Amino acid sequence: MKLPSKLTKKHAIAGVIILALAFGFGGWKIFANGTEETGGTDETGGGEEVESPVFRHPLSGLQVSEDLSILPRVYAVMIDNSVDAWPPSGVDRAFLVIEAPVEASIPRFEAFFSADTDVEKIGPVRSARPYFIDWANEFDALYAHVGGSNAALDLIASTGTFDLNEFYNGVFFWRSSDRYAPHNTYTSTALLAAAVAKAEERGRAPETLYGTWKFIDDEKSEDGEKKGVTVQYNSALYSVHWEYDAETNAYLRSQGGREAKTADGTRLTANNIVVMVTDVAVLDSVGRRSVRTTGEGKAWLLQDGKTIEITWKKPSVSERLAFYDADGNQVAMGAGNTWIEVIPSEKDVSIN
């Protein structure tokens, strides 16, 4: 099922408002960017009035002061997660991070940033892989990377991906002198915005028409579950653990038995953790992977200290990845950021 575009939602909202004007506002509710708005009681004149509507950012679900008339541009950046690249920069500012295995089952990040977020340093930026391109294209995102596998570069060309390869666009990246290649390439949202502006001048920037998830405000766990999760990648060095922190109602990340932090010392946290199982196969002697991104499969959602089994679905490469409960209803994500851990087998996950 394809998530509705914002344009479709706005038409639906307009229709509801017209009906509300005709029949009175009492108790009406509508959805904007997956967010419920409700009406209240008028204290003057004996009628009913509409409470201030709740608007949410279409990417994070966080409350904003007004409805966004244009969907924000998305930047999808490939970020190194090998031990030689630790600690990363800017990952904590992404509204979504997808972690999936590359060669030798070492995990790599694809970090998604909203264009209205200011991040001064993002990286180290690494090379493209086909499955990460599929996830970027569902946002019509600017896909930033440094080179890539032959299959990935062919896919970029054949799909018309909004591409930013450092090999040909070095002005939008820089190389740090305190690290050695290939773990020393960085970018920023300001540079990525400049790349988009240049593409727009040439008429090469796609329109942003992505669908949006449903969102809810966070709610601390009261039932004592407060579960975490451990995900196995490659070896103990890359083993990922997320532990629920009741005080902040968020999940704290550790990797290789140590607290995971960014280069500026910020602890990596998430409001939602999804662990999704899909088909992963080794393609060649180098160890490059094939990862199935479309169709559906088993997954788990960790949210507000609770864990539920869900189903992930992505009908096509152009449609949003989304998550559904046992009754087939789309699961609402907690407002904030989401990390998705992609694994080949249920044996690689342990709910603690």
UniProtKB/TrEMBL annotation:
Keywords for the protein's UniProt record, in alphabetical order: Membrane, Transmembrane, Transmembrane helix
Pfam family, one: DUF3048_C
Transmembrane residue ranges: 12-31
Superkingdom assignment: Bacteria
InterPro entries in the cross-refs: DUF3048_C, DUF3048_N, YerB-like_sf
Domain DUF3048: 59-199, 229-340
Protein name, entry field: DUF3048 domain-containing protein
Originating organism: Candidatus Uhrbacteria bacterium RIFOXYB2_FULL_57_15
UniProt lineage: Bacteria, Candidatus Uhriibacteriota
